[in-house]
UniProtKB/TrEMBL annotation:
It comes from the Bacteria. It holds the Pfam family Cys_rich_CPCC. InterPro entries: Cys_rich_CPCC. Residues 2-50 form the Cysteine-rich CPCC domain. This is Cysteine-rich CPCC domain-containing protein. It comes from Clostridium estertheticum.
Length: 55
C-alpha cells in the first residue's frame, strides 16, 4: 500500500521509512487523531509538504 502522507510503498500498520508516519490501516480519517500518531493525517501531510517532522 502507499503511505497516505508521502506516497511511498509501505506495509499496513508499519512506520513509513520516508516520512515516519505510522499507518493505521486502509481507512484513515484525515481530521481525527487516531492510533499512535500525534498529529492528524491532514496535519502530517501539511508538515511533510513543508519538510517538517511528521509525528
Amino acid at each position: 500500500m502507499k503511505c497516505p502522507v508521502c506516497g511511498e510503498e509501505v506495509d499496513m500498520f508499519d512506520i513509513c521509512d520516508s516520512c515516519e508516519w505510522q499507518n493505521n490501516g486502509p481507512k484513515e480519517n484525515e481530521t481525527d487523531l487516531e492510533g499512535p500518531n500525534k498529529m492528524t493525517l491532514k496535519q502530517a501531510r501539511e508538515a511533510y509538504k513543508k519538510s517538517r517532522k511528521v509525528i
